[in-house]
Amino acid sequence: MTQSDCEQSIVSVDLEEPPSSRFETTTSEFSLPVVTPTSRIAPASLPTEPASFVAPAFKRPRTTTRTRAFRRAFFPEVADRDWNDWRWQSRNRIRTLQQFEKMLVLSSDERQALVDGGSMLPVGITPYYMSLLDREDANQPLRRTVVPVTGEFLRTPGEADDPLGEDGHSPTPGLVHRYPDRVLLLALDFCSTYCRYCTRSRVVGHGEIMPSEQRLEKAFEYIRQTPTIRDVLISGGDPLALSEDKLDWILGRLRSIPHLEFVRIGTKMPAVLPQRITPQLIRVFKKYSPLWMSIHFLHPDECTPEANQACARLADAGIPLGSQTVLLKGVNDRVDTMKDLVHRLLMMRVRPYYIYQCDPISGSAHFRTSVSKGLEIIEGLRGHTTGYAVPTYVIDAPGGGGKIPLQPNYVVGRDGNDLLLRNYEGQVYRYPDPTP
Ligand code: SF4
């Protein structure tokens, strides 16, 4: 059931709810206002209702005023049916300088980057995500993540095109086997919107990793022949850019491998193209339950009504949702921003899972923060909010060392048989911990 179906059914209950006999005896004292699907009951007009009274439905907005204004300005002739169609959104991505100049007041640096090109990563933004960008402010967090700047062309010491050494751990094209029991399957290299800090900018958008059956069969065969692999993460590019039929085929082939226990999908679609989460897609996912999903959310401004509906559909289908957030300078490197994000994610039934230190990819210096900034953010969350809202802060070790968790030091020392621990308020407590 979609959110809108659900809203309508609740309104219908209001209309059809028969008064109970106890209720009937009091109807002469007051009469219920007539509720129609489009009207609302003003709280002041409500009588003191008996327990059986069903409150009117709370109608959630379907979009933001910003998106509505953007559509009116740049796509006035586009019908809702098209705007809400993920294929239309994909076909109409904003990619040219001319389109950018029409929709944004470009800074000279943004303009220069778009004119020069030469970045490893192509440019592309869905109309929906473009509608979330600030037209004037080049420093708006979401805008910084998708509109190129010339900083992308500079390589600073310690940066590399493949900092995680994925290519060196690839037994077949598009399959990365770094940990003994799990693999990363790159389904394709296409994304509907290209993030300027992408770890895989060396491959993403280049048309080299195609979802061809021949390539994917080689990957499936490797997994089949390697019984230690129990976990596959399907990523890309964005695997949800594939058709339902293709996803059905990939999931079916993976599920036919007996020793494979755990299948995850990594995607940014609920943030950049939430229209992709259609009932048809959900039907495919339900066939292969249990599936888990890692969603890439960055900033509270991505938690729109559209994203909320996409996550609700996935969560209602029984798919556990976790978010992976890259820590980015000037985007989400403040405790209050990150706290707002993790709270909104929980409300969308997405568990904040990881905060990643930005990988040292070529041209990423303008995005990278110090590690102390990440620790400060974790310290500002742990103890200050719900435990479920606190992600694990990790560095993906350059060269292929895997994820290394980091957290503030809460052990301040030892006094005899007592361990001295610092709590979130900075107070020191003793825990009896005799030395062996
Ligand atoms: S969605 Fe993921 S793979 Fe695609 S550009 Fe963004 S970070 Fe890279």
Automatic annotation (TrEMBL):
One of its GO terms (molecular function) is L-lysine 2,3-aminomutase activity. It is an enzyme of class 5 (isomerase). InterPro entries: Aldolase_TIM, LAM_C_dom, Lys_aminomutase/Glu_NH3_mut, Lysine_aminomutase, rSAM, rSAM_sf. It catalyses: L-lysine = (3S)-3,6-diaminohexanoate. Keywords: 4Fe-4S, Iron, Iron-sulfur, Isomerase, Metal-binding, Pyridoxal phosphate, S-adenosyl-L-methionine. It comes from the Bacteria. Residues 177-389 form the Radical SAM core domain. This is L-lysine 2,3-aminomutase.
